[in-house]
Amino acid sequence: MSGPVVVAELVRSEFVEGHHYGSVVALDSTGAVAWSVGSVAEPILPRSSNKPIQALGMVRMGLDLPPDLLALACASHSGEPFHVEGVRRILASAGLDEAALRTPPDYPLDDEAREAVIRAGGHRSSIQMNCSGKHAAMLATCVVNGWDTATYLDADHPLQRGIRTVFEEVTGEPVVAVAVDGCGAPLLSTSLVGLAGAFRRIALGLDGADRPDTASARVAEAIRRHPEFVSGTRRDELALLTAIPGAIGKAGAESCYAVALPDGRAFALKTDDGAARVRPVVMAEALRRSGVDNEPGVDGEAVRRTGVVPLLGGGQPVGEIRAVF
Fold this sequence. Notes:
Elements: E1 5-12, E2 15-27, E3 33-37, H1 51-60, H2 67-73, H3 81-93, H4 111-119, H5 132-145, H6 158-171, E4 178-180, E5 186-188, H7 192-204, H8 214-225, H9 227-230, H10 236-243, E6 248-252, E7 256-260, E8 266-271, H11 279-289, H12 300-305, E9 310-313, E10 316-323
Antiparallel strand pairs: 1-2, 1-10, 2-3, 2-8, 4-5, 6-7, 7-8, 9-10
Helix pairs in contact: 1-5, 1-6, 1-8, 2-5, 2-8, 3-5, 7-8
């Protein structure tokens, strides 16, 4: 069983000063492994890359949101004003307000949004936390089903049990570990192969048996129509999804990332050190290795640009993080 391998190196003034170790898998349109590097069949914690799968579970359990708000349910949002207003809309649709959220208080994830809040005299709040869209959707799903909203984060709550059932179905793997995510919600394990497989099924509008599934199609369409709600207006994830028509994707903490194309090809990655800076570099290289950047309709230069992360010296670029797999 292989372990993580070097997937990127830090090159400063033409000197290699460090490395990132990780694993990457690419699935073909049938769901078979096209190629892989590192360890892709062992369980990982995909962090927020799980969110579209969690949203799928909620839609299966009766959550009914317009596409922009369903995209926000899949989000690690930047905390820009339209994100925060969207969370309020989800809560209001369920007859709730932000007091029901159990996300830890935080400032917006986006630098500009955070600075605007601070300049205005604002403070950390649960609704600004990047997972508040998912939590608002979880609460709305509880209201639809008549479930208790105070305990919605408990792993044995009917909401979380239902999400786990759908998660195991679309990943095709049993959950072997249930952790607590940074936002306090249950965090389910799968492998990179399982994660990519789930994104493939959502992108194609399929269930775990590869049959047409309206709920999967709704989640995919929400992400495609409103990628800015899934991340933010200044994020590399938005730039990538905008450059590849029909793609869906979701980044997660600890340098996790999953992307699926409209034809069913899918990619998933994780680096061992969890560095956010290397995540887009590795995904851009995975897409390039599979030739996606040169396909008709794809803005190849924009795809490649998402993988450009300069290293600075004296405020000027003096090197780069370079993919090496």
